[in-house]
Amino acid sequence: PLSEDEIRAHTLVVISCIENKREVYAVETIANKQIDRTFMFDKNGEFPSDAGVIPTAVRNFFNILEAQSAEYSMKVTHLELYNEEITDLFAPEECSKFIEDKSKKPIALMEDGKGGVLVRGLEEEIVRTVNEIYKILEK
């Protein structure tokens, strides 16, 4: 939703949701030409072959592991990075930005020493199947 400042400035709404149809409607203006796009949310927890990056990557992870008959365990986290602020999407809403439990470390971006980045302090969920991850995404 628009912020109060955006409403006062009469900013155009460029994203809207039609929940009963599970659609997101986006309006984009390029070179003074308005382009309307509609995106469907995947339904019934099943993802089509042309699904997005996350469902495709998840399916590929499990396909590779199962093809190798590998023993594995997998934990997933889910975060939002917006305006340089990290929100843990698995944490209860009232705890996602402010850690009240002093035994928990605050969410922090850190270098892993190998040129990569890791995020410390996120809630994790153990998953065993593709469908478990899809249910988490739906939630």
From TrEMBL:
Residues 1-139 form the Kinesin motor domain. GO terms for molecular function: ATP binding; microtubule binding; plus-end-directed microtubule motor activity. InterPro entries: KIF11-like (IPR047149), Kinesin_motor_dom (IPR001752), Kinesin_motor_dom_sf (IPR036961), P-loop_NTPase (IPR027417). It is found in: Cytoplasm, Cytoskeleton. GO terms for biological process: microtubule-based movement; mitotic spindle assembly; spindle elongation. GO terms for cellular component: mitotic spindle; spindle microtubule. Its main location: cytoplasm. Coiled coil: none annotated. Keywords: Cytoplasm, Cytoskeleton, Motor protein. Belongs to the TRAFAC class myosin-kinesin ATPase superfamily. Kinesin family. This is Kinesin motor domain-containing protein.
